[in-house]
Automatic annotation (TrEMBL):
InterPro entries: TPR-like_helical_dom_sf
Lineage: superkingdom: Bacteria
Alphabetized SUPFAM superfamilies for the sequence: TPR-like
Listed name of the protein: Tetratricopeptide repeat protein
Length: 365
């Protein structure tokens, strides 16, 4: 699939990323200019995506907002606001800011890339496809082809999506494993959503060979192992993430694995994940409604809370996944109300929702 030898060592890249962030943080403390603030925000988002660090994403947003105050022009400020709003699933706000950025003269190709992501995130696939196709024609690189592949996968055009993912890998002309690793993550998530767990596992294995420290890839591979009944492997994959990531998704997966083992600690771990989700929902209800709803349908075992969150997510975006999530939440709540029983389910059809903290609009969690 990929030539792993062509990329710089993953640990070296992550060490360099940390060093660059530290250097830019020092410049910020000394009064960094706009370009340095934007660069620092970008690198923090990348590290947050790759290492599953919510705290990095929070800090990245803070610094990006700080950069807006020193933006060289209004168009750039509107564009940064749009990207931040889109990243955290405030889709209507993002659309307004994109229109403002375009009216103020921001480059059309960058506006179109963000618009395509918003259209995809909100289920307007045909309109998104027009933009994605045009962007690929203008610049057939790993990012444009990868975004097109992600859209095709969401449109259930899996064979074409697979070919496009492969073309995106072939188009990568850099030596950093970061773009390729994020693309492989999206590819693996798409395979999970299509129900092909063997394919997903092979893709996540490729990702781990390129960038062993990619936390979401390892976490999703644990979900795949759980779905295939490989409980010891799933446990081995997810356990280290509980210490390195502050994303409750991995603790939720851990709780599911413990429940599958019949371990009584599963309830306690699920409660810890539930508390963490509620903290995130209080801060960013739009960004976490889908993941939290899936959690509360299953091991979180709060059916009415799941319905509330699935409804909120459905109002944000009309996609097959949002409709499916709501239908499952409603069925689960009705079933439990009628049976008066508890329920623990495997969430393979609900989880693995590539959160474009890689790209919430279509890419990354």
């Amino acid at each position: 699939m990929t030539n792993t030898g062509r990329y710089t060592s993953g640990p070296i890249v992550l060490a360099n990323l940390a060093a660059s962030i530290d250097s830019l943080e020092l410049r910020r403390a000394e009064g960094a200019a706009f370009d340095n603030l934007v660069a620092l925000s970008k690198l923090l988002f990348i590290r947050g995506d790759v290492l599953g660090r919510m705290a990095d994403n929070e800090r990245a947003e803070l610094i990006a907002t700080e950069a807006i105050a020193s933006s060289p022009d209004a168009a750039t400020g509107f564009y940064i606001r749009a990207r931040l709003a889109g990243r955290f699933h405030r889709f209507e706000e993002a659309s307004v800011h994109l229109d403002q950025a375009f009216a103020a003269g921001y480059p059309r190709n960058k506006i179109d890339a963000e618009k395509a992501a918003l259209l995809q995130a909100t289920g307007r696939y045909d309109a998104a496809l027009l933009l994605r196709d045009r962007l690929v024609q203008d610049d057939p690189g790993i990012h444009t082809l990868g975004a097109l592949a992600s859209l095709l996968a969401e449109m259930d055009r899996w064979a074409t999506a697979e070919a496009t993912y492969a073309a995106a890998i072939d188009a990568d002309d850099g030596v950093s494993p970061l773009p390729c690793s994020q693309l492989l993550f999206e590819w693996g998530v798409s395979a999970m959503r299509s129900g092909d767990l063997d394919r997903a596992d092979a893709i996540f294995a490729e990702l781990e060979a390129i960038l062993p420290g990619h936390v979401p890839g390892r976490g999703h591979r644990a979900e795949v192992a759980l779905g295939r009944g490989q409980l010891q492997l799933a446990l081995m994959l997810v356990t280290p993430l509980l210490e390195t990531s502050d994303d409750p998704e991995y603790r939720a997966t851990y709780a599911e694995i413990l429940a599958a083992h019949g371990n009584a600690k599963a309830t306690r771990e699920a409660e810890r994940a539930a508390s963490a989700y509620e903290v995130l929902l209080a801060r960013r209800p739009e960004a976490y409604a889908d993941h939290a709803a899936a959690f509360f349908i299953g091991i979180g075992n709060r059916p009415q809370r799941a319905v509330e969150l699935a409804l909120a997510n459905r109002k944000l975006r009309d996609t097959p996944r949002s409709r499916n999530l709501l239908a499952k939440a409603l069925r689960n709540a009705a079933s439990l109300a009628g049976a008066g029983s508890t329920h623990v389910s495997n969430l393979m059809s609900l989880r693995g929702t590539g959160h474009r903290f890689g790209h919430p609009q279509g890419a990354t969690r």
